[in-house]
Task: structure prediction
Amino acid sequence: MIRKVIEHTDKFESLEVRYALEREAAALAALRRDEEDLAALRTCLDQCRQAAVQQDFEAYAHWDVEFHKMVIAASHNQLMANLYNHISEALQNMILEMKDLKNVDFYLDSHALLYQAIADQNGHQAEEAVRLYIDKARTQEEHL
Result:
């Protein structure tokens, strides 16, 4: 049921919900992450980069969503992970609707900043990295 609600939700509202969940998850992940979490995040980032270089948009969208899911998983909050799993399909669809990789360098850089903040256990920097990419997504939506 929640998936159907999300599919019919305004994209700006979706970004607001993502910001709330991902910002909190990033801060918690910075506090709670372990080496296994960091390895999973690194794998997702590497796969995103590889997909971008190969101009494989579908693979990029898949690994981008996996990266976000791994940030949520690194928060070690099961309820948050369950909630996020319900919106992850809509997130992937939103990424696929962009239809190109023109801003991919910005997103890769902001995701790398998020990874580094989590690795450094810096919750404030992790929250700032989330703000950067959500603001960019919001700006993109405004110009469509």
